[in-house]
TrEMBL record, chain A:
Pathway: Sphingolipid metabolism; Lipid metabolism; sphingolipid metabolism. It comes from the Eukaryota. PROSITE patterns: AA_TRANSFER_CLASS_2 (PS00599). Its cofactor is pyridoxal 5'-phosphate. The lineage of its organism: Eukaryota, Viridiplantae, Streptophyta, Embryophyta, Tracheophyta. This is Aminotransferase class I/classII large domain-containing protein.
From TrEMBL, chain B:
Its main location: membrane. The keyword Transmembrane helix applies. The keyword Transmembrane applies. It comes from the Eukaryota. It is a multi-pass membrane protein. One of its GO terms (cellular component) is endoplasmic reticulum membrane. It comes from Nyssa sinensis. This is ORM1-like protein 3.
Length: 489, 157
């Protein structure tokens, strides 16, 4: 539940209205003369139909320098950001050769594996020499190496499921699996704030899609009851199967999903559950096993567990974990397994080594330390930000913390202000978030030291004061209690 | 102003073009924009309040007709053109008729008409233009006009 100050909501709508009006006026001038771009392609259809690219041209391009900033080093706690300049008001950006070292508050580097690691990197280099950077083949043809089998066993073991299958890309894992699992005549009930990969996969499957209010198990129950009673559209036959799709940590809210209630409801109405743990695997839970461990849900209760290796394991790719029969079926049918190139061997080795570090199988306690560090860092950062008066979303223990900005002008102001002081943050606006709720999303990593976090807090507080995003009253500093309190009897 | 907070609950509407209309504060912003544009017109042209309201009514007619009932599709390419045949009015609330938002948007032109005709003392030619504007806008918002294209005007190629 996000509490928006009413005046801010009004000014945000007004600002977007003004931007829209100016964009339309500019478009009008673009159409009338028609002289600037005379195309000699007669009879060809235009690339963009109607007003499709309005948002990109008139709103996104104005603040283009806040997005897609190139970096020239590994995304560790501090990284090098390449400076860019523009001669035509941000329509085109040119890179320079100058770089600035900035504090990285934007990468999904939850356990610090994104940079060179003392256990993982030597092993990765060894596997690179042994196996080569790419298999140049699909899994079904010549792309399955011993590393892939070891990786699948390792991840199934880690998740505590009977079997797993891995893919080369995280986005593709969702969008290629859902059409295989369910088709026309099935029902997909997905949370309203699910990731674009799930939405794409669901649309591609051909099943009917229904959405329930974000993280509201009571509304899920309502939707399930209504849909089971009504059956398929027009024929009203019973649904062939029902899948409920939720995420572990929602990347734009930092919220944990209410998993125990949702699982209970799905079991009651005999629907399958699909949990996308892209942001939570390896980052939450006592031993890093994700939301199931954190919320006390038995992994056997969730039918399909999906996750990616890009966030906590410092690699690339995604996995699906489930029962033996499910994984066997996927190996026969999933196009991402049959036709897409398999995951790169050094990337697979990085994941295997990262899992070993997390579980402590490398002989040290670094894994446990990293997990404790990220929990401490997240809770410290979040509580400090809230004390300063920022509106921060997300649950306790979650390493993702969005700071609400609201007004469209504050997005580039905050982003550029922080970059000037060498702190790199990621800002997200419409249409990735609802129109009113633009935010700056901070991702905390286990490789951030206390000094890094304090510097980050200082800069954010300064820029926040300048931009005016401290929407909640700041908590006053509690006076220090004396060591010796006089007891009056 | 004391900090008065409202709760923003994410809605189940997947259409980014219309989802913003379900959040708190939109109706107030709409009414305030109309009121402040009236003040602006009064200060720029120095006309009578009645003329200013008539100008507001007519420009409101032109603007809302163009954006609600003429332009089709969405300003993003992400939704792959699912809504390319629907105007904004047909897209809101996922096509459900007679919701609160739709009722509010139908009442606004009528109230504007009443204010404009009252402040101009029902004189011609303002009365005729105002009446034409309100009839066109209200008829376009009838539930029976959902996806109807009269004489193929604004139909698909």
């Amino acid at each position: 539940m996000i509490a928006v100050p009413y005046l801010t909501a009004l000014t945000t709508y007004f600002s977007y209205g003004l931007l829209f009006v100016f964009g339309q006026i500019r478009d009008l001038f673009r159409k009338i003369p028609g002289c600037c771009r005379s195309t000699n392609l007669q009879g060809y259809a235009p690339i963009c139909f109607g007003n499709e690219d309005f948002y990109t041209r008139r709103l996104y391009l104005r603040i283009q320098d806040c997005f897609e900033r190139p970096i020239s080093s590994a995304p560790d706690a501090w990284f090098d950001v390449v400076e860019r300049y523009s001669n035509d008001n941000n329509k085109t950006l040119k890179r320079t050769t100058k770089i600035t070292k900035c504090l990285n508050l934007g990468s999904y580097n939850y356990l610090g594996f994104a940079a060179s690691d003392e256990y993982c990197t030597p092993r990765v280099i060894e596997s690179l020499k042994k196996f080569s950077p790419s298999n140049c083949s699909a899994r079904a043809d010549g792309g399955t190496t011993t590393l892939h089998n070891e990786l699948e066993k390792s991840i199934a073991n880690f998740i505590r499921k009977p079997a797993a299958i891995v893919f080369g890309m995280g986005y593709v894992t969702n969008s290629a699996i859902l059409p295989v699992l369910i088709g026309k005549g099935g029902l997909i009930i997905s949370d309203s704030l699910n990731h674009n990969s799930i939405v794409n996969g669901a649309r591609g499957s051909g099943a009917t899609i229904r959405v329930f209010l974000h993280n509201t198990p009571s509304h899920l129950e309502e939707v399930l009851r209504e849909q089971i009673v009504e059956g398929q559209p027009r024929t009203h036959r019973p649904w062939k199967k029902i899948i409920v799709i939720v995420e572990g940590i929602y990347s734009m809210e930092g919220e944990l999903c209410k998993l125990p209630e949702i699982i209970a409801i799905s079991k009651k109405y005999k629907a399958y559950t699909y949990l996308d743990e892209a942001h939570s695997i390896g980052a939450v839970g006592k031993t890093g096993r994700g939301v199931c461990e954190l919320l006390g849900v038995d992994p056997a209760d969730v039918d399909i567990l999906m996750g990616t290796f890009t966030k906590s394991f410092g690699s690339c790719g995604g996995y699906i974990a489930g029962s033996q029969e499910l994984i066997q079926y996927l190996k026969y049918t999933c196009p991402a397994h049959l036709y897409a190139t398999s995951i790169s061997p050094p990337a697979a080795e990085q994941i295997i080594s990262a899992i070993k570090v997390i579980l402590g199988e490398d002989g040290s306690t670094r894994g446990a330390k990293k997990l404790a560090q990220i929990r401490e860092n997240s809770n410290f950062f979040r509580s400090e930000l809230q004390k300063m008066g920022f509106e921060v979303l997300g649950d306790h223990d979650s390493p993702v913390m969005p700071i609400m900005l609201y007004n469209p002008a504050k997005i580039p102001a905050f982003s550029r202000g922080c970059l000037e002081q060498n702190v790199a943050v990621v800002t997200v606006a419409f249409p990735a978030t609802p129109l009113l709720l633009a935010r700056a999303r901070i991702c905390i990593s286990a490789s951030h030291s206390k000094e890094d976090l304090i510097k980050g807090l200082e800069v954010i507080s300064q820029v926040g004061d300048l931009v005016g995003i401290k929407y909640f009253p700041a908590e006053p500093n509690k006076p220090q209690l004396d060591e010796k309190t006089v007891k009056l009897d | 102003m004391a900090n008065y907070y409202v709760k923003a609950v994410p809605s189940t509407d997947l259409n980014k073009n219309t989802e913003w209309f379900t959040y708190p504060g939109v109706w107030t912003t709409y009414i305030l924009i109309l009121f402040f544009s009236w003040l602006l017109i009064l200060s720029i042209f120095g006309c009578t309040p009645g003329m200013a309201w008539t100008i507001i009514n007519l420009s409101h007619f032109v603007v809302t007709y163009h954006f609600f009932h003429w332009m089709k599709g969405t300003p993003f390419a992400d939704d792959q053109g699912i809504y390319n045949r629907l105007t904004w009015w047909e897209q809101i609330d996922s096509g459900k008729q007679l919701t609160r938002n739709r009722k509010f948007l139908t009442v606004v032109p009528v109230v504007l008409y009443l204010i404009a005709s009252h402040t101009t003392d029902y004189q011609h030619p303002m009365l005729f233009l105002n009446t034409l504007a309100v009839i066109v806008l209200v008829v376009a918002k009838f539930p029976n006009m959902h996806k109807v294209r009269i004489f193929g005007i604004n139909g698909d190629q």
